[in-house]
Design brief:
There is one protein chain. By secondary structure, the chain is mainly alpha-helical. It has a domain at about 70-280. Helices cover about 70% and strands about 0% of the residues. The chain has helices spanning about 1-15, 20-35, 40-65, 65-70, 80-85, 95-100, 110-120, 125-135, 135-160, 165-170, 180-190, 190-205, 215-225, 235-250, 255-285, 295-305. Helix 8 (about 125-135) runs antiparallel to helix 9 (about 135-160) and helix 9 (about 135-160) packs across helix 15. It starts with a helix and ends with a helix.
Length: about 300
């Protein structure tokens, strides 16, 4: 495992940190392969089968990048701007936050914090899934069912209702100037490689998949699923994750507040549906064991002769 971690570090330095979901899953499965040494290769086969649905959903997410245009769906650019303005008295929170806190050419501590929080979307859920798969496959199944259900419902929405984020609207003159801060922060710090990696990951993602915010959805799902499964000392940190993600997404120009609220609604609906489905499956009658053939009088007499 130490050698594998070293290989990953070298790869990250040479080719960059894998922000592609498929590449991240491939590295995860590679770690399972190393973990399987001495434990039987059936463990690796089980990992491949278990992780296949999650990987398929992530591939579908990447493929939605061009689907909206191919289907001729109208990209909604004005609607989220109007929605946020109605909620906040004519002000778009992204514009207000950047106007009050962003200083061109200067990187504040909260700029770095917002960018790191934004980046956690790419790693937190796969990392949790990997640890849970090793420790408790039963809990892993429940969490993965929620992740897949949330991702799939979001994917369907992205195709039916493609919506542009704030930076997209700003680039087209529909919104006041908005800077896409998540990658810009690292470039201004002189860490060009990190900034280029973020921009590369953003370039391969669906640029009109803002409604709902899956970044916030994953953060809220982690908090909702684990808040009763962690110690009280860890719980405040866990519950702070979704608000931190929400503020980071709005501040960095990646999402509107309406997108974050939609992400919360999706999480509540999905977790409720998965819980209900799990309970329904648990109440289904178990398959009964095959009945023994009925004994006739002659069979009973023979059993008595043999002392049965």
């Amino acid at each position: 495992m130490a050698a594998y971690a070293a290989a990953f570090a070298v790869s990250a330095l040479v080719a960059g940190v894998p922000l592609s979901r498929v590449t991240a899953v491939a590295w995860t499965l590679g770690a399972f392969a190393v973990y399987s040494i001495g434990r039987g290769w059936r463990l690796l086969g089980r990992a491949l089968v278990d992780w296949l649905p999650f990987t398929a959903v992530m591939v579908c997410y990447d493929l939605t990048r061009g689907v909206a245009d191919e289907l001729g769906r109208t990209v909604h650019v004005d609607w989220p701007v109007a929605a946020d303005r109605r909620m906040f008295g004519g002000t778009v929170p992204t514009v207000w936050l950047q106007g009050h806190f962003h200083t061109p050419g200067v990187v504040h501590w909260y700029d770095v914090a917002a960018s790191v929080t934004y980046l956690s979307y790419f790693f937190v859920v796969p990392l949790i899934m990997a640890v849970m798969w090793i420790r408790s496959r039963a809990l892993w199944r429940r969490f993965t069912a929620n992740v897949i259900a949330l991702s799939f419902t979001a994917l369907v929405t992205y195709v039916i209702f493609p919506e542009a984020p704030p930076w997209y609207a700003s680039a087209r003159g529909i919104l006041s100037p908005v800077v896409r801060l998540a990658g810009l922060v690292w470039g201004e710090l002189g860490l060009r490689t990190a900034g280029d990696l973020i921009e590369e990951g953003q370039a391969t993602a669906n640029s009109v998949a803002a409604m709902p915010s899956l970044h916030f959805g994953y953060a809220m799902l982690v908090a909702v699923f684990f808040h009763r499964r962690v110690s009280r000392r860890v719980r405040p940190l866990l519950l702070a994750y979704p608000p931190a993600m929400a503020v980071s997404l709005v501040y960095t120009g990646e999402h509107y507040v309406i997108d974050v609220l939609a992400g919360a609604v999706y999480v509540l609906a999905v977790t409720g549906a998965v819980t209900a489905a799990t309970g329904l499956i648990a109440r289904l009658p178990a398959r009964s064991a095959p009945r023994s053939p009925a004994l006739g009088p002659a069979d009973a007499a023979r059993d008595l002769d043999h002392g049965r």
